Amino acid sequence: MTTHILTTRANFIDFMGHALEGNGMPPIAGRILGLLIFDGEPRSFSDLATELGVSRGSISANARALVQRGSIIKVNMPGDRQDYFQLADESFCVLLQTIATRMRSTSQAVQGFASELPDDATPHKRLDGLAVFFTAMADGIENAAKTLNQRC
């Protein structure tokens, strides 16, 4: 790889660490995902630890979380006893569904607060509007997931 590509790769991996952290995931999980997206090939457990400069325990915990979310999968390589990880085929759909679920949950929570207030109270109307906003966002994200991949 050229120096420019290596720099872009490093910047993308760091960016993904920050992006997932903003969505409630540890930065290492984002960096693992970023590396797997950029490289597009399975990487061994020990390669991930070395490449990202983190402990094997950190790779283990964060890879497990990404597997549970459906973002990455564990694969076996013939004749090799190490664990390998790669981007799941539907990882982008899973990410969109996770965001949509969070939006629906937020909508329901806000609607719960609104329901505690009289219908004619001004705060009730604003909270109700916010709940509708989060529901509309969830609907839009689910539509984007369907557009991205009909299997979502």
The residue fraction in helices comes out at 55-70%
Written as H for each helix and E for each strand, in order along the chain, the element string is HHEHHEEHH
- Let me know the average pLDDT: 91
Strand order of the largest sheet: 1-3-2
Strand content: 5-15%
| Model regions low in confidence, pLDDT < 50 over at least 5 residues | none
Whole-angstrom Rg? 20 Å
State the end-to-end CA separation: 34 Å
* Biggest beta sheet attributes: 3 strands, antiparallel
Q: Helix count, per DSSP?
A: 6
Structural class, from secondary structure content? mainly alpha
> What is the number of beta strands?
3
Query: What overall form do the CA principal axes indicate?
Result: elongated
Strand-helix topology:
Blueprint: H1 3-21, H2 27-39, E1 43-44, H3 45-52, H4 56-69, E2 72-77, E3 80-87, H5 91-115, H6 122-148
Antiparallel strand pairs: 1-3, 2-3
Helix pairs in contact: 1-2, 2-4, 3-4, 5-6
Structure in a nutshell:
This protein is mainly alpha-helical and 152 residues long. It has helices at 3-21, 27-39, 45-52, 56-69, 91-115, 122-148, and strands at 43-44, 72-77, 80-87.
